[in-house]
Specification:
By secondary structure, the protein is mostly helical. The protein contains 8 helices and no strands. 23% of the residues are buried.
Length: 191
């Protein structure tokens, strides 16, 4: 795995952030990513408690807490992570689509935020209703059986994003140069 070679100057950045602002943005970025991971761990604990605890009241409470407290903090941390990541990308030498590690992180962040809105949030009413009726018995809806996927997918993707942020592997995304930019000699040599 090769490390990204840092360009010699900062000129390629769309806007250049001062050192203090860059540090502050990076700190916020890391806190948002850490908070997001923490919320995912909490989701995993609540889902596990709802599924495996023996006390029905505790299970009901876990599902109700899941429905009431999870989606908005998770989406907020995801969007703060995205916004600070965009600033860091656009305002530093890294760019958004210049290095593979940044582009992959951007894709992961966008996919995860979209999944929160289109796949997780719409099922929360059913989860809350199941939690309310659990002590009196009731069939588990599909939303309950698929609750293991969100923390599993999200924790895997966020771990990959964190590793990419720290190791910065794979180097630059090479774009094809337009024919006009290739000199006549190079064009003759081209296959
Ligand atoms: C998906 C969630 C994300 C997580 C968990 C995450 C995590 C991290 C971490 C831990 C670092 C610090 C690396 C270090 O200083 O050694 C970092 C840096 C960075 N991240 Fe993210 N990141 C995420 C999303 C994004 C997105 C969406 C972008 C861009 C669109 C982005 C762009 C950057 C950039 C450019 C840096 C380097 C800043 C610098 O050193 O100047 N990140 N990220």
């Amino acid at each position: 795995m090769t490390s990204a070679v840092a360009p010699r100057t900062q000129q390629a950045a769309v806007f250049v952030l001062g050192r203090r602002w860059r540090r502050a943005t990076l700190i916020l970025h890391i806190i948002a990513g850490g908070a997001w991971i923490g919320i995912d761990v909490m989701v995993a604990v609540l889902v596990g408690t709802g599924r495996f605890a023996t006390d029905p009241e505790l299970r009901a409470l876990a599902y109700r807490a899941l429905a009431a407290f999870v989606v908005w903090p998770m989406l907020t941390s995801g969007l703060v992570c995205l916004a600070t990541g965009l600033v860091l990308g656009l305002c530093t030498k890294w760019g958004l689509l210049r290095y593979w590690w940044v582009a992959v992180k951007l894709a992961l962040n966008l996919v995860l935020c979209t999944l929160i809105v289109v796949a997780l949030e719409p099922g929360m009413d059913a989860v809350a209703a199941y939690g309310r009726g659990l002590t009196t018995g009731g069939e588990a809806p599909n939303e309950i059986s698929s609750l293991f996927f969100p923390p599993a997918v999200s924790l895997t993707a966020l771990t990959i994003a964190t590793v990419l942020g720290v190791l910065k592997p794979w180097g630059r995304i090479r774009r094809r140069r337009p024919a006009a930019a290739i000199g006549p000699r190079q064009r003759e040599e081209a296959p």
